[in-house]
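Before a colleague's protein record goes any further, I have to sign it off. My question to you is simply how this chain folds and whether the tokens agree. I do not need a full report, just your reasoning and any doubts. This is what I was given:
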Amino acid sequence: RYRIMELANIFKISKQTLIFYHKKDILVPDYIDENNGYRYYSSSQIWDLFMILLLKEAGFSLEEIKKYSKPKSLEENIDFLEEKIEDIDKKIEELKNSKNKINDKLVTLKNLSENIDEKIVIKKIDKLKVYLLKNEDPFDDVEIAMNYEKLKKLANKMKIKELLYVSIVDLKKYKGEKTIPLNRLGIIIPENISLDGEEWIEKREYASLKHKTSYNTLYVTYENIFNYVKKAGYDIIGDSIEIGSEVIIPMENGVGGLLEINIPIKKK
């Protein structure tokens, strides 16, 4: 028999680890001296511990190790390990998704840190296929957040890989508030996907500017576009269209991200 410190030294683990395994009924000593409470392990338990540590290194939980260590048939062992592999595959997929989201955030941060052209440009945008939800209260953050979640779930269901949100601002009702009213909120639908309730935003000419600071200062970007449009001799002929990714980044004066603001115009 081996005393607890002898077994611990063999595997380069602590005495407390073996005591913990004993308490969890994972590796119970072969013999415990009633007089001094010393734990003793048999030779065969060396291999039991070897297997326990191997399973632990493979990512098995203590409950799984305990379950797997109990005597069972070959078929039961096969079923148990196949279930574990399925569980690992799910975790791998979850980690891949997490990595992609973190990578998207990293790309957005790099774009924000680069010298993005902050000049207002006049450009034509091809017609967009979108799915929109109406915000009953354009200033209600709770309702807007709930609609974001609905759209995100819909995009996942439709397996839309590159998710771009679209916000519609009714400029006729916008009175220069510091908070921009989001009248409708939606997502861009790829042309190869059909969805009940989808709409088309027609091809138009827009005054466009990329907003890359916090959303709290969005009204400043709008004012800059309004001033430019007026001085350049254009009329505003419709609702503003904001296009942005789902990546939101904490900034010094509030959360924000890269958002393209497009205001439809025509020459006077």
